Amino acid sequence: MVTAVGSLDATVTTHFRDVLLTEIGLRPQAVIADLSRVDFCSAQSLRVLLEASAEAHAAGVPCAVVSDQRALQRPVTVLGVDHVLQLHRDLRAAQSWLTALRLVEESA
Questions:
Q1: Which one of 54, 65, 69, 95 is most buried, counting C-beta atoms within 10 A?
Q2: Which InterPro entries match (predicted)?
Q3: Beta carbons within 8 Å of 75's beta carbon, 6+ residues apart
Q4: Domains of the chain, earliest start first
Q5: Among residues 76, 66, 71, 70, which one has the least CA distance to residue 35?
Q6: Pairing relation of β-strands 31-41 and 2-8?
Q7: pLDDT tens-place string over residues 42-77
């Protein structure tokens, strides 16, 4: 799990990208980006999330994002990328989604 707190702005974007991509590169069973305590998400940071999600998908690693904060919910919805990012309101919902996804994959 990758956890961020505070503002995801230009000062942290590179580090945020590096941490996410490093985690995905380890090929875990799943990656959860816990952004439930993020109060600002720049467009650049949102792009990092989209890139990381695509990278995880290509690597076969399910990726979920956790946030009920308007700072992330609103741009994801307004930009129409909610079909790309697996955005969940809390950690329990993300874990449930990942469990259900795993069960579906195992039964296929």
A1: 65
A2: STAS_dom, STAS_dom_sf
A3: 41, 43, 46
A4: 2-107 (3.30.750.24)
A5: 66
A6: parallel
A7: 999 999 999 999 999 999 999 999 999 999 999 999
